[in-house]
């Protein structure tokens, strides 16, 4: 018993120190280790297995919507990065540079890609000539480097993994459709695989991507009420095309600029997964992306027949669910704790008494509820239970977000809400950046998005009292 207690005590309670709880879970669930260079991380087998499931689900959707995967170089010549003014200004402070090859100083510095817009633009300028070459629908899975000052595993790291889509289209309208389509793909991934409810909307001018005409985003709420931007899709219009001279001859033989998009989703979503579903016993992984959906724990496994029956069970269920067995010589209590820490959706206990009754015990990770199920019914009950857990996680996250969303009509109301029920703040805004700046400066609250689903909460801006233009979601954010 004391051993089990020790294991659990390694996690700080989220109510006491949410940031420390996060760090503890990341470490104790064996997701990542810190890299040698500050801000870098080592994704360990279990952390990477979860990411792989997220990645595979998204990759399927990217391909289903007609995109091809490609691999572009890691290095960007300095002169190329400087071609689009807003873009370089946005990224310059975070760029890591290569200055030497061996002992020799390079004639031109090379940026390690912080994102690859300019590489794709350069390629498109050389490979798009006619309307017949359009659209170009490319995506790449890659790691990128951004020299961040403060870093945390998954949430903000100097090097991270992601996919970046880069597309070129004949018309602005087509590019707009693509931008919407890919945001919907992200929303579907978040809600239906990761069980994370999202708010879809447009970023304000201040918060949009450097060089974009506009940016649309999915925003989700973490357990502590803070927001996390989980994926963004950008419409570039023809801004990059003009800077990089990407033109095509239309059907009438007239030269036209292409219209572009880019969209990205990164390992940050792993941070969202941890902070939306996790609890004081550790990680909780939604069944659809869980590398192990059910873990069998044999009880009194030294007794004759127990292990045989447990392995039989695993073999029988292996075609239906992702299942594993812990037949190590650790105590069952230790194994239970590990199952909870790793967030396996279901734990299956089987001991001599269960075998006598031809049953097992199923323990749900999300509610801790136990249920006795006949071994004959497991092939039906287990997948159904996994679906119930998936749905329950989504419902819980949505209820939590609703509870922590407050309508505010003045700065006083905003400050009161931040104190009493920190979370999302829905408020009317005049559209003036001065208000946005003031709110950010005084309260560290940023505009998250102008949601597509608008409501009219008031006639005037909650900050300045001038005529309101649109409703905005505000929050402190990761
Ligand atoms: Zn205002």
From TrEMBL:
Keywords: Aminoacyl-tRNA synthetase, ATP-binding, Cytoplasm, Ligase, Nucleotide-binding, Protein biosynthesis. Its EC number is 6.1.1.15. It is an enzyme of class 6 (ligase). One of its GO terms (biological process) is prolyl-tRNA aminoacylation. The keyword Cytoplasm applies. The keyword Amino-acid biosynthesis does not apply. Belongs to the class-II aminoacyl-tRNA synthetase family. ProS type 3 subfamily. Catalyzes the attachment of proline to tRNA(Pro) in a two-step reaction: proline is first activated by ATP to form Pro-AMP and then transferred to the acceptor end of tRNA(Pro). Homodimer. This is Proline--tRNA ligase. The gene is proS.
């Amino acid at each position: 018993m004391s051993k089990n207690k020790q294991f659990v005590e390694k996690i700080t309670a989220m109510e006491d120190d949410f940031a420390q709880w996060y760090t503890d879970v990341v470490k104790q669930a064996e997701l990542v280790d810190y890299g040698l260079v500050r801000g870098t991380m080592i994704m360990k087998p279990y952390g990477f297995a979860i990411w792989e499931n997220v990645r595979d689900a998204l990759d399927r959707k990217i391909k289903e919507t007609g995109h091809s995967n490609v691999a572009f170089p890691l290095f960007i010549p300095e002169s190329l990065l400087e071609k689009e003014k807003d873009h370089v200004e946005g990224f310059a402070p975070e760029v890591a540079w290569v200055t030497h090859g061996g002992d020799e100083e390079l004639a031109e510095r090379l940026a390690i890609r912080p994102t690859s817009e300019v590489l794709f633009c350069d390629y498109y300028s050389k490979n798009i000539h006619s309307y017949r070459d359009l659209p170009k629908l490319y995506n790449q899975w890659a790691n990128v480097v951004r020299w961040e000052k403060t870093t945390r595993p998954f949430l903000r790291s100097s090097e991270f993994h992601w996919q970046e889509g880069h597309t070129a289209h004949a018309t602005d309208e087509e590019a707009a459709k693509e931008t919407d389509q890919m945001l919907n793909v992200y929303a579907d991934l978040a809600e239906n695989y990761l069980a994370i409810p999202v708010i879809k909307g447009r970023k304000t001018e201040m918060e949009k991507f450097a060089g974009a005409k506009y940016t649309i985003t999915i925003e989700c709420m973490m357990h502590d009420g803070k927001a996390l931007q989980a994926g963004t899709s950008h419409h570039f219009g023809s801004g990059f095309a003009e800077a990089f001279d990407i033109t095509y001859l239309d059907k009438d033989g007239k030269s036209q600029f292409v219209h572009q998009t880019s969209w990205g989703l990164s390992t940050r979503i792993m941070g969202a997964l941890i902070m939306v579903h996790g609890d004081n016993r550790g990680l909780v992984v939604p069944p659809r992306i869980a590398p192990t959906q059910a873990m069998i724990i044999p009880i009194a496994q030294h007794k004759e027949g127990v292990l045989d029956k447990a392995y039989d069970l695993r073999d029988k269920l292996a075609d239906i669910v992702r299942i594993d067995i812990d037949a190590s010589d650790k105590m069952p209590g230790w194994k239970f704790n590990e199952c909870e820490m790793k967030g396996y959706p279901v734990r299956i206990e089987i001991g001599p008494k269960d075998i006598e009754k031809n049953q097992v015990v199923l323990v749900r990770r999300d509610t801790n509820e136990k249920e006795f199920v006949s071994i004959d019914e497991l092939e039906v009950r287990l997948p159904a239970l996994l679906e119930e857990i998936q749905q329950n996680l989504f419902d819980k996250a949505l209820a939590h977000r609703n509870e922590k969303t407050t309508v505010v009509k003045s700065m006083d109301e905003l400050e009161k809400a931040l104190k009493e029920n920190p979370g999302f703040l829905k408020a009317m805004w005049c559209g003036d950046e001065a208000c946005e700046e003031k709110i950010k400066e005084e309260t560290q609250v940023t505009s998250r998005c102008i949601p597509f689903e608008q409501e009219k909460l008031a006639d005037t801006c909650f900050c300045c009292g001038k005529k309101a233009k649109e409703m905005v979601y505000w929050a402190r954010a990761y």
